[in-house]
Automatic annotation (TrEMBL):
This is Leucine-rich repeat-containing N-terminal plant-type domain-containing protein. Residues 240-432 form the Disease resistance R13L4/SHOC-2-like LRR domain. Keywords: Cell membrane, Glycoprotein, Leucine-rich repeat, Membrane, Receptor, Repeat, Signal, Transmembrane, Transmembrane helix. It is found in: Cell membrane. It comes from Quercus lobata (Valley oak). Gene3D superfamilies: Ribonuclease Inhibitor (3.80.10.10). Residues 1-21 form the signal peptide. It is a single-pass type I membrane protein. The chain crosses the membrane at residues 854-877. One of its GO terms (cellular component) is plasma membrane.
Length: 922
C-alpha cells in the first residue's frame, strides 16, 4: 500500500493544485473612516500580538479606510471588512505560512463598535488554543466569518447562532473544537458556505437533519468530524442548491444508503474518502448528474464499478483508490469527455483495459496500478490522450506498441513496472522529452540498450530499470540522474561516470568488471555527491584505494560479493556520513582499521566471508550506533572482547564460523536493544536526505539453519549467532534477559554446563540452536513457555532427564534432541523411567498464539524472495511520502520549506479546507 499511497497523495496534490486559485484584495477609493471606528480598531490592534508587523499601516495618523486589510463602505466610510488571515499571498504572490509569526493574542470587544462589519477573516492565525470568543455572536451585521485554522479550541459558543445573516461560516481546521449539539445553528437561514472540518460533531446525532434545513447551502465541509452515520432520518428536506459536500475522514462504518444520493442532485463535488464506508456503490449515484469530482478512495467498497457510471458525463476527477472493487473497468469511461484525473489503483479490478480509455482527450492523470488487470495495452488505448502527463500502469499487462510508435503524450511520470514491455527496448521512450520519473522494473526487457539512451536520461531524475535483462557496456556512459536503479540486469564494462547530480546508484547484480580503484579514483568522479552506491554482486576486483575523501557524501556503501582483495584502508575513516558498509564475500584480509571509529553514524557493518585473521578490535565498543555487526566466516581468533557489550543498539550480532575462543561474555545483558521486547517498527536505518529513494538494505543471515536474504525487514530481526567457534564454559545465565531476541545460535562450540534455567523468559525466541556442544543437565521446564519457537536443535550434547511436556517441545522432530543418550520422553523413542519423571510439571504453551505471531514475521517477508512491493514496507512508505511532498513543492515554488510530517499534515489539512470552488460563489 505504501507506494500507491504516495501516488495517491500526488494525485490529490495535483488535484488541489489544479483547483487552487489566487485572490488579491481590491484597493479602496478615497473616502474617510469615522473616528469612533478607527479608535475601536486601534484598541483591537493593541490586544493582538503581531510578530510579523502585518498591521503596521494601522496608525492613528492615517485614515483607517486606507489601512491594509481594512475595507470601508465607499459611500459611508464605515468599516465593513477585516481581512486578517495569517495565510495570505504576500507582495510576491507567495503563500506565506510561518505559524510562529501569525497574529495572536486577544480579540478585543471593541470589534462590537464596528456596527457595519460584515466580513471578518481571522483564519490561520494562532490564538493558542483559547476558546472562540462568544461576543462574536453579537456582531449582528456579520455575513462572512472565517475562524478556520486559527488554533481555537473548546466548545463552540452557541452565541454564534445569533448571527442570522451569516452566509459564510468557516470554523474548520482548528486544534480541538467540539460541539455539544448543533441546534443553535437552526437560525442560519441564509447560510451558503459552512466549514466545520475537524470539529468533533459526534455528540450531535441529528446533524444531517439540522443541516438539511439550510436551503441556500452551496458548500458543506464536514471532514474529520467523527461522524458515524450517513443515514438520513425521516422528514428530510432535500438540498436543491448544494454543490460541494465533503464528508471525508469520518467513521461511518456502514454502507452508503441508496437514498443518500437523492439528497442533492445539484452536487458538483462529493468527497467521501477515508470514511470506513462499506458495500457497493449504490446505483442512485447516477442521480448526481452534475457531478464533476467524485472521491471515494480509501474505503472498503466492494462489487463492480457500475457500467452506468458513464452517465456522469461531467466528471473531471474520479478517485476510487484503495477499495476492494472488483470486475472490469467499465468501458463507459469513454463517455467522460471532461475527465482529467482517474485513480483506480489498489483495487482488485480484473479483465482487460477498455480501449475506450483512449477517448479521454482531457486526461492528465491515469493511475490504475496495483490491480489484477491483464491483457494487452496497445496504441489504441492512448489515441486521444494528448494531455496525459502521469501514467501509473504497473500491472501484469502486455504493453504492446510498434517500435516506431510516436505517443500522443509527453509524460512527466511513468510507472510501468511489471508491465511486459519487452523483450525489445521501448524505443518510444526517446520521444518523451519531459519525463522526470520512469519506473520500468521487471518489465521483461532483454535487449541491448540503444545508443541514444544514456544521453536521453541525463534530464531524467529517477530511473528504475531493475530486474530486466538489459545489456550494454557502460564504460563510457556519463550519468546525470538523481536516482538510478539498474539492479539485476546484464550491464557490463567499467563502472559508469557520474555527474554531481547523481545521489543514488544501484548497479548491483550486473557484470561490471575491472579494478574498483578505477571508478573510485577517476578524476571525473571527483565532484560526485553520491549518497548511495550499491555495486554488490559484480566482478569488481583489485584493492580498495585511498580515494575516499572524494566520496564523503556516501551514506550507504555496498561492495559485497565481488573479488576485492587487500586490506581495508585507513582512509575509509573519512566516510563520516556512512550509515551502512557492506564488504562481505570478498577476499579482504588484514585488520579492521581503527579509523572506522570516525564513522560514528555507522549502523551496519558487514565484513563477513573474507579473510580477516585478527582479533575483534576493542574499539568496536565505541560504535554505539551499530545495529548490525556481521563478521561471520573470517579467521577471527582470540576472545570475544567485553567491549562488545557496549553495543547498546545492536540487534544482529553474527560472529559465527570463526576461531573465537574463551567464554561468552556475561555482560551480554547490556545489549539493551536486544533486552527490549520487539519494537521493530521504530527501528530504521538512517533517513536519507533526499526524496525518491527506494533503496532497501540487504543482509544475508542464517536465522534457522538456512541462509536467507533480508531486506528492509532486517529491522525486525533480533539475532545472535556465535556458532562454529571454539567458545567454552557455560552459557551465561545473563543471556536470558535478552527478551527481544528471536534467533539464538550457539551451536558447534565447546560449551558446557546447563542451559540457563530462565531461557523461557526470552519469550520472542523463534529459534534456538545449541547443538553440538557439551551441555548437560535437564532441559529447563521454562522452555515450554516459548510459544513462538518454531525451530529447536539441542542435538549432540549431554542433556538428560525427561523432555518437558508442552504443545511446543513435543512438536519438534526427534532429531532436535538426538545425540543426548540420557534424554527421554516424547518425541524421542526412549521412554522415561520413574526416577527420570519430574514431579510437578504440567503441559503449557499456547500454540494458537504462536502461529499468529509466526505468520506475522513470515508475512513481513522474513528473508524470502517476496515481490518487490512487499519488501519495501514502512521505510519505503516514508520515503515516497517525502517524494510526493517535495515534488509538490517543486511545482508550487519554494514556500513553507518544512521537513516534518506534522507540518506536512497541517499543510494538507489546509489544502483540504482550501475553499475549493467557493471563490466562484462569492
Ligand atoms: C477621490 O479623490 C479625487 C481627487 O483626489 C476626487 O476627484 C474624487 O472625487 C474623490 N472620490 C471620492 C469618492 O471622494
Ligand atoms: C462602491 O462599491 C460598490 C459596491 O461594492 C461598487 O459597485 C461601486 O463601484 C463602488 N464605487 C466606487 C466609486 O468605488
Ligand atoms: C496552538 O496553541 C498551543 C498552545 O499555545 C500551542 O502549543 C500550539 O503549538 C499551537 N498550535 C499551532 C499549530 O500553532
Ligand atoms: C427533492 O426535490 C426535488 C425537486 O425540488 C423533488 O423532485 C424530489 O422529489 C425531492 N426528493 C425528495 C427525496 O424529497
Ligand atoms: C546529447 O543530446 C544533446 C541534445 O539533447 C546533444 O546536443 C548532444 O550532442 C548529445 N550528446 C551525445 C554524446 O550524443
Ligand atoms: C543534469 O541534471 C540537471 C538537473 O538534474 C540538469 O539541470 C542538467 O541540465 C543535466 N545535465 C545534462 C548534461 O543534461
Ligand atoms: C511460564 O510463564 C508464566 C507467566 O509468564 C510463569 O508464571 C510460569 O512460571 C512460567 N513457567 C515456567 C515453567 O517457567
Amino acid at each position: 500500500m505504501g507506494a500507491s499511497f504516495a501516488t495517491h497523495v500526488l494525485f490529490l496534490l495535483w488535484f488541489f493544485a489544479a483547483t487552487f486559485s489566487l485572490s488579491l484584495f481590491k484597493a479602496e477609493s478615497n473616502i474617510s473612516c469615522i473616528e469612533k471606528e478607527k479608535q475601536a480598531l486601534l484598541i483591537f490592534k493593541k490586544g493582538l500580538s503581531d510578530p510579523r508587523n502585518a498591521l503596521s499601516s494601522w496608525s492613528d495618523q492615517v485614515d483607517c479606510c486606507r489601512w491594509d486589510r481594512v475595507h470601508c463602505n465607499n459611500k459611508t466610510g464605515r468599516v465593513t471588512e477585516l481581512h486578517l488571515s495569517g495565510f495570505y499571498y504576500d507582495d510576491k504572490s507567495l503563500l506565506s505560512g510561518d505559524y510562529e509569526k501569525r497574529l495572536g493574542g486577544e480579540i478585543s470587544l471593541s470589534l462590537l463598535k464596528l456596527e457595519f462589519l460584515n466580513y471578518l477573516d481571522l483564519s490561520y492565525n494562532n490564538f493558542n488554543c483559547t476558546p472562540i470568543p462568544s461576543f462574536l455572536g453579537s456582531i449582528g451585521s456579520l455575513r462572512y466569518l472565517d475562524l478556520s485554522g486559527a488554533n481555537f479550541s473548546g466548545l463552540i459558543p452557541h452565541q454564534l447562532g445569533n448571527l442570522s445573516s451569516l452566509r459564510y461560516l468557516s470554523l474548520g481546521s482548528n486544534s480541538d473544537l467540539y460541539v455539544d449539539n448543533l441546534r443553535w445553528m437552526s437560525h442560519f437561514s441564509s447560510i451558503q458556505y459552512l466549514d466545520l472540518n475537524s470539529i468533533d460533531l459526534h455528540r450531535e446525532v441529528d446533524w444531517l437533519q439540522i443541516m438539511s434545513k439550510f436551503s441556500s447551502l452551496l458548500e458543506l465541509h464536514l471532514s474529520t468530524c467523527q461522524l458515524d452515520s450517513l443515514k438520513p432520518s425521516l422528514g428530510f428536506v432535500n438540498h436543491t442548491s448544494l454543490q460541494v459536500l465533503d464528508l471525508s475522514y469520518n467513521l461511518f462504518n456502514h454502507e452508503i444508503p441508496n437514498c443518500f444520493f437523492n439528497l442533492s442532485t445539484s452536487l458538483v463535488v462529493l468527497k467521501l474518502e477515508y470514511s470506513l464506508l462499506k458495500g457497493k456503490i449504490p446505483p442512485s449515484i447516477l442521480n448526481l448528474h452534475n457531478l464533476e469530482y467524485l472521491l471515494l478512495s480509501s474505503n472498503d467498497l466492494v462489487g463492480k464499478i457500475p457500467e452506468s457510471i458513464g452517465q456522469l458525463k461531467y466528471l473531471k476527477y474520479l478517485d476510487l483508490w484503495y477499495n476492494s472493487l472488483s470486475g472490469p473497468i467499465p468501458s463507459s469511461i469513454g463517455n467522460f469527455s471532461y475527465l482529467e484525473g482517474l485513480s483506480l489503483s489498489d483495487n482488485q479490478l480484473s479483465g482487460t483495459i477498455p480501449e475506450s480509455l483512449g477517448l479521454l482527450s482531457n486526461l492528465e492523470w491515469l493511475s490504475i496500478d496495483k490491480n489484477l488487470l491483464t491483457g494487452t495495452v496497445g496504441e489504441g488505448h492512448f489515441t486521444e490522450l494528448s494531455k496525459l502527463t502521469s501514467l501509473y500502469l504497473s500491472n501484469p499487462l502486455f504493453f504492446n506498441v510498434s517500435s516506431n510508435w510516436i505517443p500522443p503524450f509527453q509524460l512527466d511520470v511513468a510507472y510501468m513496472s511489471y508491465c511486459k514491455v519487452g523483450p525489445n527496448f521501448p524505443t518510444w521512450l526517446q520521444t518523451q522529452k519531459s519525463l522526470r520519473v520512469i519506473r520500468m522494473s521487471k518489465s521483461e526487457i532483454s535487449d541491448e540498450v540503444p545508443g541514444w539512451f544514456w544521453n536521453w536520461t541525463s534530464n531524467i531524475e529517477v530511473i528504475d530499470l531493475s530486474g530486466n535483462h538489459i545489456e550494454g557496456d557502460m564504460s563510457d556512459a556519463v550519468l546525470n540522474s538523481t536516482v538510478l536503479n539498474l539492479n539485476s540486469n546484464h550491464f557490463k564494462g567499467r563502472m559508469p561516470q557520474l555527474s554531481a547530480n547523481v545521489k543514488e546508484l544501484n548497479i548491483a547484480d550486473n557484470s561490471f568488471a575491472g579494478p574498483i580503484s578505477t571508478f573510485l579514483c577517476l578524476k571525473r568522479n571527483r565532484m560526485n555527491k553520491l549518497i548511495i552506491l550499491d555495486a554488490s554482486f559484480n566482478l569488481l576486483s583489485g584493492e580498495l584505494p585511498d580515494c575516499w575523501k572524494d566520496w564523503q557524501s556516501l551514506a550507504r556503501l555496498d561492495l559485497g560479493s565481488n573479488s576485492i582483495s587487500g586490506g581495508i584502508p585507513h582512509s575509509m575513516g573519512s566516510l563520516v556520513a556512512l550509515q551502512t558498509l557492506h564488504l562481505e564475500n570478498n577476499n579482504i584480509s588484514g585488520d579492521i582499521p581503527s579509523s572506522l571509529q570516525s564513522c560514528s553514524q555507522l549502523e551496519l557493518l558487514d565484513i563477513g566471508e573474507n579473510h580477516l585473521q585478527v582479533t575483534i578490535p576493542l574499539w568496536i565498543g565505541e560504535m554505539t550506533s551499530l545495529m548490525v555487526l556481521r563478521l561471520r566466516s573470517n579467521g577471527l581468533h582470540g576472545h570475544i572482547p567485553l567491549q562488545i557489550c557496549q553495543l547498546s543498539s545492536i540487534i544482529v550480532l553474527d560472529l559465527a564460523n570463526n576461531s573465537l575462543s574463551g567464554t561468552i561474555p556475561k555482560c551480554l545483558n547490556n545489549l539493551s536493544a536486544l533486552a527490549k521486547p520487539d519494537n521493530g517498527g521504530s527501528i530504521h536505518f538512517g533517513y536519507l536526505p533526499y526524496a525518491y529513494s527506494m533503496y532497501v538494505e540487504n543482509l544475508f543471515l542464517v536465522p534457522k539453519k538456512k541462509q536467507l536474504e533480508y531486506f528492509d525487514n532486517v529491522k525486525f530481526v533480533r539475532l545472535i549467532d556465535l556458532s562454529s567457534n571454539n567458545l567454552s564454559e557455560s552459557i551465561p545465565v545473563e543471556i536470558s534477559v535478552l527478551f527481544g531476541l528471536h534467533f539464538l545460535n550457539l551451536s558447534q562450540n565447546h560449551l558446557t554446563g546447563a542451559i540457563p534455567e530462565k531461557i523461557g523468559s526470552m519469550k520472542e525466541l523463534e529459534s534456538i540452536d545449541l547443538s553440538r556442544n557439551h551441555l548437560s543437565g535437564e532441559i529447563p521446564p521454562s522452555m515450554s513457555n516459548l510459544t513462538f519457537l518454531s525451530q529447536l536443535d539441542l542435538s549432540y550434547n549431554s542433556l538428560s532427564g525427561r523432555i518437558p511436556l508442552s504443545t511446543q517441545l513435543q512438536s519438534f522432530d526427534a532429531l532436535s534432541y538426538t545425540g543426548n543418550p540420557q534424554l527421554c520422553g516424547d518425541p524421542l523413542p526412549k521412554t522415561c523411567t520413574v526416577e527420570e519423571e519430574p514431579s510437578n510439571r504440567t503441559p503449557i504453551g499456547r500454540i494458537e498464539d504462536h502461529s499468529e505471531k509466526y505468520s506475522f514475521y513470515i508475512g513481513l517477508g522474513v528473508g524470502f524472495a517476496v515481490g518487490f512491493w512487499a519488501i519495501c514496507g514502512v521505510l519505503f512508505f516514508k520515503r515516497t511520502w517525502r517524494h510526493a511532498y517535495f515534488r509538490f513543492l517543486d511545482g508550487i515554488k519554494d514556500w513553507v520549506y518544512v521537513t516534518t510530517m506534522v507540518k506536512v499534515n497541517w499543510f494538507l489539512e489546509k489544502l483540504r479546507s482550501c475553499h475549493l470552488i467557493s471563490e466562484r460563489h462569492r
